[in-house]
Amino acid sequence: MKYILAAAALAQIAVATEGSDHELEKRLDNGLGLTPPMGWSSWNVAQCASASERYAIDTANKFISLGLKDLGYSYVNIDDCWSTKSRDGSGNLVPDPSKWPNGIKSVVDRIHGMGLKFGLYGCVGTMTCAGYPGSWGREAQDARLLASWGVDFWKHDACYTPCTNGQTPQTCWSAQFNTRAWYETMRDALASVRSTKNIYYNLCQWGRDSVWTWGNSVGNSWRMSADNWQDWDSVERIGSAAAGISQYSGPGGFNDLDMLIVGNNKLTENEERLHFGLWAICKSPLILGNNLNTISAASLAIIKNKGIIDINQDRLGKPATIFRPSGSPAPVSGRIYSYWAGPLSDGVVIGLVAGTGAATLSVNFRDVPGLGSGSYSWREMYSGRTGTGTSVSFSLGNHDMAVIKVTTSEWYSQCV
Ligand code: GAL
């Protein structure tokens, strides 16, 4: 699937650089996802092998013992491969008994009892990407089953859908079909069970059909790119593309930059700081795609950075994007630009990013959208450095990031 998804990434970059005056359509408005969801997903840990009760309960316990629950991580999401390969005689999805010896509902109940939430995964098409039953033609039935189990979160993938040639390949990129209608079918199915269970709806069609322009009338968040393939190139590809679509994201409907790979020994410590910091200020869902049993102390400290989590969870829900201080070089497509800023309810967040090599990055606050020529108090969230003045300057190693919160007076929050 990788080669096809690369094409999607290119299409997405093209769209992301188009004009930005698109009117947001009516929001889904199910009252969920007013700030980006925080949690964990099983996929990166061991793909199909981690779609089990053991991983779900173990992760829920880790959320508590590692202090992640207290910081807001709440969704324990099971991805592809949780069911058997065929439906039962009534057409219902069946939890694989070897992975769910007690069924799904008992696990959901236990996780709810721990003050946490539970998510599941499915697919628009006839099969999921790994070949398990999809929801095609069965959306209402599947929604009823999810609601009866008390599932809180549903990720809807885009494999095995009809293609121009009448086939249903694992991934069809034919322009003839627009994925929107398929995602609306599941939206309506979930809406019809809302009185039983209000379910968060995450769209996963890899940024097709400019999903950011209509995603918030369909779901609570939408993947805006091909997968994070657990390498620096993915972080760079996704992080750079996020700058062009920030205006479409807001409370109840957020661009989803895909799972975090902090703690998987795939990035340097600098890159892990950049990855977490950038996803957070872009108001992406913070869904951990890692194994909490083996995470290092350094990686754990990154995902537990309360100052950065608070920025991600700020009630305004407005993503940061790039700005260009006078005298700085122009952004380069596909590279993560050095200067980012976004509004907060009590200030402004500035991201300084050494995306292409070690750098000393300085910014005058008067160049920052939302700030003026006065003196401000600031705090950098990784180092804890604080100061007051008209500018900041940070020397950063290759692929590192500084996340600076500039506090403004209360009037600011009333003006944005
Ligand atoms: C992909 C999706 C991944 C993961 C995988 C499971 O399409 O982007 O996040 O869910 O399917 O098969």
UniProtKB/TrEMBL annotation:
Q: Does the keyword Cell inner membrane apply?
A: no
Q: EC top class, in one word?
A: hydrolase
Q: Which GO terms describe its biological process?
A: carbohydrate metabolic process
Q: Signal sequence span per UniProt?
A: 1-19
- Locate the Alpha galactosidase C-terminal domain: which residues? 338-406
Which molecular function GO terms apply here?
alpha-galactosidase activity
EC annotation from Swiss-Prot or TrEMBL: 3.2.1.22
Q: For this protein, what reaction is catalysed?
A: Hydrolysis of terminal, non-reducing alpha-D-galactose residues in alpha-D-galactosides, including galactose oligosaccharides, galactomannans and galactolipids
InterPro entries assigned? Aldolase_TIM, GH, Glyco_hydro_27, Glyco_hydro_27/36_CS, Glyco_hydro_b, Melibiase_C
**Keyword annotations from UniProtKB, A to Z:** Disulfide bond, Glycosidase, Hydrolase, Signal
Transmembrane domains' residue ranges: none
Q: Name any one Pfam family assigned in the record.
A: Melibiase_C
Q: In which family does this protein belong, per the annotation?
A: Belongs to the glycosyl hydrolase 27 family.
Q: What does this protein do?
A: Hydrolyzes a variety of simple alpha-D-galactoside as well as more complex molecules such as oligosaccharides and polysaccharides.
Give the protein name, as stated in the record: Alpha-galactosidase
Q: Which organism is it from?
A: Stachybotrys elegans
The uppermost taxa in this organism's lineage are: Eukaryota, Fungi, Dikarya, Ascomycota, Pezizomycotina
